């Protein structure tokens, strides 16, 4: 029995058009493998289209049309589901509107069910809704469509996506899917385990990161691979060769990139060794320096920390420069930048002993001046077998509750403070007076002094060793002034990003051509970390 034609229910056509429209409707349903039904909920009268009988494999007789026939043809697990959905639908208030989703919603249901034997089952999608006609009669309108091929396609697509995910994740080289839509910052939306190992960041933490946070300065518009240095949290050097393939949308606009990361660290190190350093000494020195440098957390309380170290000069590529940040009793934060005179294994060994002493003395309650005085005594006494007799050092202790920084310097270059800008005004860098005394080991029994000053919320503090600015034949004061002027001209967003600023400082100091080791530390004191600016 054919479904009632809409023209017979008040349409704008003529009675003569009904046979032709019925033929078109039947053809459309056969082509779409779709059947339809109509049921008057008051009388129980049911009309099925011819395609309904064909899809369910029953004889096209009016007596067989009905919900029970439909349910009897379904898979035993699916029949109760559809029965419950139809019962809830028919019990609901009559409304107009197409079904969406599973269960009752917007006056309709959408359920996928199976028909036939388990080995050759078809999947049918049932859509139904209850409507109230102008005369107030409630009726159920429904369709039944064979979606077996669609389900198979969906399954194949899912299996293909799963195969891609497995291959992607197990690839021996780093891989990332990057959202590179126009006018958007490139963001990693998918990363594999090899990339996580290269970057030193868990896969779950890589997703959502901007590409520039992992590899600053990367330019994927180049035709061939580019080599960049990854920013690892542990500071370990890791160079990669990066190439990308573009993935466009349906109109050809570039939306995503598949980026490949190949570890070329060993090759870069080998090239550096060929340029003039002894093979064996350079390898031993690199391993030693990595083991000697302290682990510096990326955050201590309200302070965000970024550190950089770069050894310079031929021969033994180890030295005595270091920076450190650590927690102190009472919620205070210790800050250290030091530079042991000389180079090589002896300077590195002395640095590790001094570093340990500073931490031990500061955490035991000694003031910055007290820490420097005790270090000077130890250097003079030679109790720890120090191989170097001179070192510069600046040590500060910050109370984040008040913003007060107590600090003392032993002949070291001053820390630089970048207070927060006001409105559109830029930040103005200023050196923090380097009060204290001479280098450690220079004057026996010297009593060091210290100073207390208040830091505004949002201030960025910069510590560094003299290798950042010291150049042969150049006045050190003028070099420091040049560094301050360069900091004053930084874009606000760069000055506020500790990691980016740490990288940029090496560029400002021309660290690639330095004549001494370089240690840099950037500390970002978060806004509202303490109630208000404090003075002394």
Structural commentary:
With 536 residues, the chain is α+β, with helices and mostly antiparallel strands. The chain folds into 3 domains: 6-148, 2-Layer Sandwich (Beta-Lactamase), CATH 3.30.450.20; 171-266, 2-Layer Sandwich (Beta-Lactamase); 300-525, 4-Layer Sandwich (Phosphatase 2c, domain 1), CATH 3.60.40. Helices cover 31% and strands 27% of the residues. It has 15 helices and 22 strands. The protein has helices at residues 18-32, 50-56, 67-72, 79-91, 148-170, 193-199, 203-206, 211-214, 265-274, 279-292, 344-363, 368-381, 476-488, 492-495, 498-508; strands at residues 34-40, 46-48, 108-115, 122-132, 138-146, 174-179, 187-191, 226-229, 239-248, 254-263, 299-300, 303-310, 319-327, 333-343, 391-399, 404-410, 416-418, 430-431, 436-437, 451-454, 460-464, 518-525. A 6-stranded antiparallel sheet has the order 11-12-22-21-17-18, covered by helices on one side. Strands 13, 14, 15, 16, 19 and 20 form a 6-stranded mixed sheet that branches. Strand 9 (239-248) and strand 10 form a beta hairpin. Helix 10 (279-292) runs parallel beside helix 11 and helix 11 (344-363) packs across helix 12. It is elongated, with a radius of gyration of 37 Å. The model is unreliable at 1-13 and 94-106 (pLDDT under 50).
